[in-house]
Structure formats: C-alpha cells, structure tokens
C-alpha cells in the first residue's frame, strides 16, 4: 500500500511528523511519503521557496526510515493539484496497488471545490484525519462521499486499490506552520515545535524573518 501525505509544509514541524508516524502505525505500512506542493492552489504564496521547503523536509526526516519525501509536485510546472499527482502515481503503480491519500477534515470539508474531485475516489482511498474544531458539514458533498464509501477498518484499504474513505482520530500535536511563521517574525524561537536542524537552517537562510543563527 502506497500512502501519501501532502501539504505546503511551510515549514515542516513536529505536528506533521508525528501525524505521519501515527498514519504509518494506523495503516500498518512501512513508509509514508510526504508530498510538498509546488504552488498551492487554494492559498497565497509560501514563506519559503519550493526548494527551501524541500530541504527543510529532508532535514526533518533524516534518520527516520518510515518517512520519505516525494518531490514530484515540485518538479511539475504550475499549481499542484492532488488529482494530477494521483493519476501519475496510479500510472506508475498499476491498477491493482492500494493507493492512499491523507487529508485533514478541514480540507476534506471543501473537497467538492478541488479540481477533478470526482475522479479522486477512482484513483485512491482517502484517509480523513480529524482536525480540532473542523467538522464535515451535514449535507455536504464530503459528508455524502463519506457516507457512501465509509470504511470501518484500516485493513479494508488493503483489499482494493481505491474507493474507500476512512476516518481516523489520532492524537495530534497542536502546532501550526502559521503559528511558527508568526513566532519567528516576532523574534521568538520555535525550538521544540520543529526539529532543531530545521530551525537552524531557517536561521541560516533567514526565512520567515528569522535572524542569523545565534538565537537558537
């Protein structure tokens, strides 16, 4: 089973990393693939370039065999659309391998505003991770999709290549990339919110308004 967890990762932090490991445990897979987007279609510009965010991810996951990075969206021109990524992965893996994408309830609630959203269940399973304060509105297309395709057991995702929607409520760390960027911009250290090598590199690159290293 091939599992992808996409996002801007601007910057990557311990909340992202811990969730990826929780997904690995819940689905009993050896590896979760982090897929940083190149140009996010539903938000403004990122605080770090694609290349910088990729470098920070690689620093963050160093030494952790269960996490790897897939930079395919960074190598693709234009905005990063999930359906395009899944089509590419499906073409590579063939029709029978189970393919899983991970998404939070906040993003899944607006699923019908994604480009080619109706094609996605025919390409992959969807794992919806509960986010604090984010619910799936009753009567929404997301709620209908969950009702029609709900899986109750993670093992069920291994029996078919795509089409199921599984809800998970793993323990989450209350950390946000937005909060980290604001903290850095205000001259405060984000240490222990993101891995030390990531914070050190942010300082050396002066990302997000960081001062040069020395404010560790």
Short account of what is shown:
The chain is of the alpha/beta class and 216 residues long. It is built from 7 helices and 7 strands; from the N terminus they run E-H-E-H-E-H-E-H-E-H-E-E-H-H.
Keywords:
216 residues; alpha/beta; Rossmann fold; 7 helices; globular
Number-wise, the strands total 7
The CATH fourth-level homologous superfamily: HUPs
H/E element string?
EHEHEHEHEHEEHH
- Terminal CA distance reads 39 Å
CATH architecture: 3-Layer(aba) Sandwich
What is the general shape?
Answer: globular
Number of self-contained structural domains: 1
Question: What integer value in Å does the Rg equal?
Answer: 17 Å
Amount of helix: 25-40%
Low-pLDDT stretches are none
Overall mean pLDDT: 94
Give an overview of the whole structure:
This protein is of the alpha/beta class. The chain has one domain (2-175): Rossmann fold (3-Layer(aba) Sandwich), CATH 3.40.50.620. Helices cover 32% and strands 14% of the residues. A 7-stranded parallel β-sheet has the order 3-2-1-4-5-7-6, with helices on both faces. Helix 4 (105-108) links the parallel strand 4 and strand 5. The N and C termini lie far apart (39 Å).
């Amino acid at each position: 089973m091939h599992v992808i967890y996409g996002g801007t990762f601007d910057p990557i932090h311990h909340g992202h990393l811990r969730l990826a490991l929780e997904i690995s445990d819940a689905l009993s897979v050896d590896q979760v693939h982090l897929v940083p987007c190149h140009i996010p279609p539903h938000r403004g510009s990122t605080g770090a370039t694609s290349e910088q965010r990729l470098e920070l991810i690689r620093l963050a996951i160093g030494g952790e065999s269960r996490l790897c990075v897939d930079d395919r969206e960074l190598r693709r021109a234009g905005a990063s659309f999930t359906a395009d990524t899944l089509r590419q992965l499906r073409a590579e893996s063939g029709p029978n391998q189970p393919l899983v994408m991970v998404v939070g309830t906040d993003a899944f609630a607006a699923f019908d505003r994604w480009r080619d959203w109706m094609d996605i269940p025919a390409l992959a399973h969807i794992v919806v991770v509960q986010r604090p304060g984010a619910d799936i509105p009753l009567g929404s297309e997301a709620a209908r999709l969950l009702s029609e395709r709900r899986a109750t057991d993670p093992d069920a995702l291994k029996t078919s290549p795509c089409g199921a929607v599984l809800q998970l409520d793993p323990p989450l760390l209350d950390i946000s990339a937005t909060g980290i960027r604001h903290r850095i911009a205000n001259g405060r250290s984000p240490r222990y919110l993101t891995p030390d090598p990531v914070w050190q590199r942010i300082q050396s690159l002066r990302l997000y308004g960081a001062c040069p290293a020395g404010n560790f």
